[in-house]
């Protein structure tokens, strides 16, 4: 699928600030892909579609996850975690996007997971640092993204875990496993 077609499909589904966020993720993902040697076209399509299911009603997301046989344990956790796996399933079924690397980078864009691929890291980080984001610590993550992809993703995941701990929110195991895999695999 080309960029224009993908943007047209997503533009019908998500509007306003959420669409602006998507365009920010697209630009950022392309820059990161070029800088760190990921495939530009895969990064572009994954970024365009990453939040495709973000605005679906919770009941619909639940049905999609069941139908798509996505990880059952997700249903025990916050519905915020459902839109990535749901989008991966819809893209395969409705738009015949079969590239598992693209689908996995969308599937895991909210939680991360252990031993993330290059494309998964690019999409996770682009989602976190696109210019419209203003979380505490985002500027440090942007600076790290100029120098070292793994350290930047590690920072984004650490910040997210701290944020969830502050809120006393449950942390999905993939998020911990992502964190641990960076502890084990980087010198930081
Ligand atoms: O969809 P976006 O808003 O662009 O960003 P996202 O897909 O990264 O979703 C961010 C939200 O997901 C944010 O509120 C934190 C939450 N989140 C990320 N990991 C976990 C989590 N929430 C819970 N409960 N558990 C997690 O492990
Ligand atoms: Fe998202
Ligand atoms: Fe997003």
TrEMBL record:
Entry's EC annotation: 3.6.1.41
Keywords: Hydrolase, Iron, Metal-binding, Nucleotide-binding
One GO MF term: nucleotide binding
HD domain location: 18-132
Class in the EC hierarchy, top level: hydrolase
Catalytic function, reaction form: P(1),P(4)-bis(5'-adenosyl) tetraphosphate + H2O = 2 ADP + 2 H(+)
PROSITE patterns to which the protein is assigned, alphabetical: HD
Keyword Metal-binding assigned: yes
UniProt-listed PANTHER family: BIS(5'-NUCLEOSYL)-TETRAPHOSPHATASE, SYMMETRICAL, SLR1885 PROTEIN
Name used for this protein in its record: bis(5'-nucleosyl)-tetraphosphatase (symmetrical)
